[in-house]
Specification:
Shape: globular
Distance between the termini: 35 Å
Number of domains: 1
Largest sheet: 5 strands, mixed
Mean pLDDT: 93
Oligomer: single chain
CATH architecture: 7 Propeller
CATH superfamily: YVTN repeat-like/Quinoprotein amine dehydrogenase
Radius of gyration: 20 Å
């Protein structure tokens, strides 16, 4: 075994012990509390997940539950409770146009919708309760590829926070009682090059230490805010300056006495002080319509985006301060460990698992990098369109295409396709994992694979 291989192994062992230390406090092998799971990492360990299954024959299918309406929000799980949101109109026939295309068109959502929250039994798929958070004609429009329920809920095991964009922010307990609701105003992100075009809001809330972090990169007065979980009251609100519309979910870095709110963006990729909202560091030159969330791994902050002139991957050190924007001819500096100028993803959040970074682009090109050095290991084309982000467990990577094909790939520096499984439905949402169960949210169903 080479010295580099030994180093990667030791790094992975150290990370697993750190993760197991978290598990000793909360059983994270069973919990998937927000977008991309615990701490937004996109994976869990100490579980056994399936390689292949069949929806037609029900092979390895635990249950399949229809969910009315249209929603790209991801399922979240705590203990035996599974939560998901949707927006349904009376005809239950919401338009959705998938695939690779460059249209900026808006969907015609001009009739009344019910913005709903579902709670299901994780073991059986049966609906425990459902609530209508809001009823009315949508206050803002969406892209033809989007939905009116894009934001993934978040939970701390006691409360559930759901965001419906312009229809508001809601907090429920696990019995479905509404604790509070908050009007967040009109949230109408869209392409900055075409003012007035609305693509729909998609940033998911994040819960940390009894606080809710919400990123609102909208055309006018973009901001990021921290709210009290118990009341919804604002603790701080920071301007995002001249940032354009983004669809990014924020992340939290907390280690060694440093706690930062990390926000991806185009002109304002930033780290904010968690307690005060003060901007600690700033980085520019991201993609001009970013959607990926920041990822915390290896005691580093990973950011990517791709649209327009820039499509970078940046790896930022947690002690960064000030303006850390790279000069045009540089790929690293005092606070940027490594970066690439072009090759980041437009929609998908990167998956960092067992020492490697897996970057999937919307056209299906999958690149594996050494997560510490940025050295590429392989590049393969999955030859489909992808919107959802990848997840991992049990040494396996799971990537779901828009057409509902799930590619199961062996984790590691060499590409090995283990299986390709058809969900037989459009799939735009990132899957979830709880215990040994994979949960896929398709256009019409929740599907549990075990």
């Amino acid at each position: 075994m080479s010295r580099l291989s030994i180093f990667h192994y030791l790094l992975w062992v150290i990370f697993i012990f750190d993760f197991q230390d978290l598990e000793s406090q909360t059983p994270y092998s069973s919990q998937w509390p927000g977008f991309r799971g615990p701490q937004g990492c996109g994976f869990i360990e100490n579980v056994k997940t399936q390689v292949d299954w069949s929806v037609d024959s029900s092979k390895n299918i635990k249950w399949k539950t229809p969910i009315p309406g249209l929603g790209h929000s991801c399922p979240v799980i705590w203990d035996n409770y599974l939560f998901v949101t949707t927006a349904a109109n009376k005809s239950n026939n919401e338009s959705l146009k998938v695939g690779l295309y460059g249209d900026i068109d808006e969907a015609n959502d001009s009739i009344e919708h019910e913005f709903k929250v579902y709670c299901l039994d994780k073991q059986t798929g049966k609906i425990i309760w459902e609530r209508v958070a809001h009823k009315g004609i949508p206050k803002s429009k969406r892209h033809t590829k989007g939905s009116q329920a894009n934001c993934t809920p978040a939970t701390d095991g006691k409360y559930l926070v759901v965001h419906f964009g312009s229809e508001g922010l809601y907090c429920y307990d696990f019995k479905g009682n509404l604790i509070w609701k908050k009007d967040m105003g009109l949230l109408t992100p869209g392409p900055y090059s075409d003012p007035g075009v609305e693509w729909g809001y998609a940033s998911s809330p994040v819960i940390f230490e009894g606080k809710i972090i919400v990123q609102c990169d909208i055309p006018k007065t973009p901001y990021i805010t921290v709210l009290d979980l118990l009341t919804g009251n604002e603790i701080w609100k920071a301007s995002r300056g001249d940032e354009v519309s983004t669809w990014c979910t924020p992340a939290i870095y907390s280690r060694n006495g440093i706690t930062r709110v990390i926000a991806n963006g185009f002109t304002h990729i930033c780290g904010y002080d968690f307690k005060t909202g003060a901007e600690i560091w700033k980085l520019g030159n991201g993609g001009d319509a970013p959607a990926p969330a920041p990822v915390i791994a290896n005691d580093l902050i990973y950011l990517n985006s791709a649209h327009g002139k820039f499509s970078p991957i940046y790896v930022v050190k947690p002690d960064a301060t000030g303006d850390i924007t790279l000069s045009p001819d540089s790929t690293k500096n005092k606070y940027i460990a490594w970066s690439i100028k072009r090759g980041g993803a437009y929609m998908q959040t990167p998956l960092i698992y067992r020492g490697y970074l897996y970057n999937l682009q919307i056209n299906g090109q999958l690149t594996c990098f050494d997560a510490l050095t940025g050295v590429p290991k392989y590049k393969e084309s999955l030859k489909e369109a992808f919107t959802s982000s990848g997840i991992a467990a049990d040494g396996k990577l799971y990537f779901s295409s828009e057409d509902g094909n799930v590619y199961v790939i062996k984790a590691g520096p060499e590409f090995q396709l283990l299986a390709k499984n058809a969900l037989k439905d459009i799939c735009m949402a990132t899957p979830a994992i709880s215990g040994n169960t994979l949960i896929f949210r398709t256009q019409h169903y929740l599907i549990a694979v075990e």
